[in-house]
């Protein structure tokens, strides 16, 4: 379950940069219980921001709050993600220039683990942060839905590909009172393909991670109204 939540958290770090300033609110459920809320916001000054916070029983047993932001200044992007959970806090900052990593650090510094697939210099080229990747893959969907693209990502530790694909163009109707969209949705799959930075023993588990994304059209754009993945339990995410 933990590995699948990681991919959900990657998804939580996004908002569309090409829209007017706006907030997006998502609720995340497991076993029909709301255990996380997510707010996204985008401003006209090329800034993406998100806030994630655990809710209900999860907050009681394992509180988590994360705040992420990406700022774009000409050809340079600065990404920061900080989190606060029980007995542990950390902030990670990455600076990208011309799609290359030029600076990367965490406070406090991350523990150096053994049996790691080393990150090579070329791995950090043609790469973006998680927020920008999801904006490019998921939210840059105008008029016609395009689910045949991928993006290489660096999150401060791991280099990986996020790959968007579509098995068919069928319409799907989700039977849930939590869904705000009325009508047929189109399904795409966002999958994870690890490159480097990970523990070798985790490679198979990481490469099995995916999220099914159901898009609905609104004002000539496709938005992700419902997202789901399965591990030990089914996780579901709804756009309010």
Q: How does this structure look, described?
A:
The chain is mainly beta and 240 residues long. It has one domain (2-239). Helices cover 13% and strands 49% of the residues. The protein contains four helices and 14 strands. The chain has helices at residues 2-12, 56-61, 130-139, 203-207; strands at residues 22-30, 33-43, 47-54, 64-73, 76-85, 88-97, 100-107, 149-154, 159-165, 171-172, 185-196, 210-218, 221-230, 234-239. Strands 1, 2, 3, 4, 5, 6, 7, 8, 9, 10, 11, 12, 13 and 14 form a 14-stranded antiparallel β-sheet that branches. A hairpin with a 4-residue loop joins strand 8 (149-154) and strand 9. The longest helix is centred in the N-terminal third of the chain and has 11 residues, at 2-12. The radius of gyration is 17 Å and the shape is globular.
Provide keyphrases for this structure.
240 residues; 14-stranded antiparallel sheet; 14 strands
Any chance you could write out the topology, listing elements then pairs?
Blueprint: H1 2-12, E1 22-30, E2 33-43, E3 47-54, H2 56-61, E4 64-73, E5 76-85, E6 88-97, E7 100-107, H3 130-139, E8 149-154, E9 159-165, E10 171-172, E11 185-196, H4 203-207, E12 210-218, E13 221-230, E14 234-239
Antiparallel strand pairs: 1-2, 1-14, 2-3, 3-4, 4-5, 5-6, 6-7, 8-9, 9-11, 10-11, 11-12, 12-13, 13-14
Give the beta-strand count. 14
Order of helices and strands: HEEEHEEEEHEEEEHEEE
User: Count the helices. How many?
Assistant: 4
- Taking all Cα atoms into account, the compactness measure Rg is 17 Å
Amount of helix: 10-25%
Q: DSSP strand (E) fraction?
A: over 45%
* Low-pLDDT windows of residues: 13-20
